[in-house]
Amino acid sequence: MAKHKVLEVPSSNMKKAITKILYEQGYILNYKFEDTDPVHRTIKIALKYNPHTKQPVIKGIQRVSKPGLRKYAGADTLPRVLNGLGIAIVSTSQGVMTDKEARRLNIGGEVICYIY
Fold first, then answer.
1. In the chain, what is the greatest distance between 2 CA atoms, to the nearest angstrom?
2. Residue 116 has what DSSP assignment?
3. Class of CATH domain 1-57
4. What is d(CA 23, CA 89) in angstroms, rounded to the nearest whole number?
């Protein structure tokens, strides 16, 4: 069994939603929410690697919307990352979701980041 790198990050509701999306889309191997200590809540994320090339599955993450400059997109102007090979994570009125799901539901929102 190969060893996997495990990241431990401070927890927030937005990070939990993004972690769930990364898992559902196959970008990470597994995750665990550590909520035992009410002050120091963390998320443990096991990164996923290509079994043949040993390269990480996530090639890059680019933050789009920043606290100083929010970026919003309508349902018809949602970005396509690497012509559909990557995903954009969008915060909508119906929750945090991928750009493909937001397009399917015909809703726009704040573009959080691109993952490729």
1. 45
2. -
3. alpha beta
4. 13
Amino acid at 33: F
Summarize the confidence of residues 35-52 as an average pLDDT: 91
List the chain domain ranges: 1-57, 59-116
pLDDT tens readout for residues 68-89: 999 999 999 999 999 989 999 9
Exposed / middle / buried, residue 58 (Cβ in 10 Å: 0-12, 13-18, 19+): middle
DSSP letter for 12, please: -
| Domain 59-116 class in CATH | alpha beta
Cα–Cα nearest to 77, from 46, 45, 111, 49: 111
Q: What percent of the chain has pLDDT over 70?
A: 97
Integer Cα distance of 97 and 112 in angstroms = 10
